[in-house]
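Wed. Picked up where I left off yesterday with Aspartate aminotransferase-like enzyme/N-acyl-L-homoserine lactone synthetase. The coffee machine is broken again, so keeping this brief.
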Amino acid sequence: MRKTTLTYKIASEPDELGQIYKLNYQTFVEEIPQHGQNENGHLVDKFDDENTYIIAKNESEVVGMVAVRANRPFSLDQKVNDLDRYMPPLANPCEVRLLSVKKEFRSTRVFYQLIDSLVNYCLKMDYNLVLISGTDRQIRLYKRMGFESFGPMVGTEEAMFQPMYLTKEKFETTTKAFKKMMIQKSRPTKKMNFLPGPVPVHEKVENAFGKESISHRSNDFIEEMKEVRLKLCKLVNANNVQIVIGTGTLANDLISAQLTKIPGKGLILSNGEFGHRLIDHAERFGVDFYTIEKSWNEKITRGEIDDVLKQHPDITWLWTVHCETSTGYLYDITKIQQITKKHNVKLCVDACSSVGVVPVNFQDVYLASTVSGKGLSSYPGLAIVFHQEPISPDKQIPRYLDLGQYAMTNSIPYTHSSNLVAALHEAVKRVDLDYRGYIAAVVRRKLKNAGLEILGDEDYSPGIITIPVPDFISSRDVGDQMKANGMIISYESDYLLKRNWVQLALMGNMTMTEIEKAFTIIKQFISQVVEQV
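Structure written out below (tokens, as returned):
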């Protein structure tokens, strides 16, 4: 759906009338074969001079209309013998006709707002009875609105109509009902979220987050923090973990601060945006290090890492991302662990986009970072750092970045969020790595069958699928179109726009039904693009 700026009014301008005649033709000639075709594609109603047209406009475009008229004889007078005998006593009737909404606006609030405007107009004019010829395709809808059927069906075999009326008493009921409907229509439709964060969360996670806040010094909170930390350590086979209010960036700053305490130099691997950010983290803390930097998505081999460690025995630590979120590239941490153990080098891992998505084992990892709002499928706001060895406070490190402060106080040195911790606790219980892999395999297969290029293969992360968009299409246009159709994908980051890429992140809580709906949208978009090429 394109961007809309809707207004409702009584038609008064020549351009509005011209658009009314065109919409009239599209609906009652082309869609409902009630009238014969003509060359100019306009249908002027026989009562046009007496009609009052209530219209819906999207900026200057007429997208919906309905006509009301009180002069007798009505259109129904010519179709129903002795029309008055069907009407209640003291009726002051009007006839409503030519209700039409453009197809692309039928799933919006246009219909309801037109009816609401119509009801208000009729009440203002003191009409106490509305007559319509209801198309046989929408009789159930009209009855829900309060219309009552009377007399026989009229029209032709191709276009049948049921005479119906709505009384003033039902007017008022209808007004209330439609206002409720319009409120519902005005509520934002829940969009399908394929972002790498924030991610869609399970209802139980949402409920846990919504519980009343409790003090971070209370026994209940201390106990819950203890339990969620134990579950996190078990999930990744780690010895220790600290949970901090913050993001993945903070988690990596906490690691950077610890790197300043390790004698010797480091080695940082980079073949994408987030590897480059690790370099930036380390530079800001003034630590000494070497790098292996490759082009985006280019593999860094085991042999290359081994050679650098052989050439530089002063390297004491190695830092790498696990999943390079900018591409979906997945480093083989197991093989890297073998190399670092061989050279007695401490391994540090940015696992923000891999914990909860793929199996990870931090038994031989010195430090590792992750977050609550990605693969763990909870709300953003908690930075998580795993550490192999006990860590003590260090006064040379700023208090908020001192991992030892958190270790000494069971992750609660300062004010914490019971809501975020409760949500994370519930989310960790629901981690299902097998389902992640299954969903990713289905998505990859469907994308390839649709003829789309995908970075990497099944060895890449199941949590991030990167699609290079053909040069003749803008990735921003693709993302905007998906968003307009209820599907939010990752495309607005500078590094994606620069390369004309879009991404589908499969990190949050999602069902196969949502996946199928998403592919319906994608197929529709592909079809539109093919037609334009």
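Quick read: The radius of gyration is 32 Å.
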